[in-house]
# Entry
Amino acid sequence: MSDDIPDPVRTVSVEKAHLLHEQAAFSEDEYENTDNEIEAAYHETHVEYTHERIEQIEGDGLRGIDVRESRDEFKDEFDEYDEECVEGAKLAAKWDTEKQILREYFDEGEDTFEVGEAMNVMGYE
# Structure
């Protein structure tokens, strides 16, 4: 494959942002109905961060590469915290939001590999 061929840039369309609105509404309900501080922090952060992403989608759009980089950063930070603390819950909420965006909009689930990673799994170098 030639090095001068650009990678395709995929963005989330405004028309599909309704899926994120539904996810935010679910977390708002969960936030209002929990008495657990850690769960409350998770759902509050999930709502706030999801709304940030919706604004980006409805503004300039959202590129898959940016979401993947952000997801990886949140994962790295999350690994440094105890899962059962407020800060860990907030990072988990952002990490989950990015995973949801990748799954819903970019067809990248937990079992989706990048090209190089897939080649390694298949036994190619």
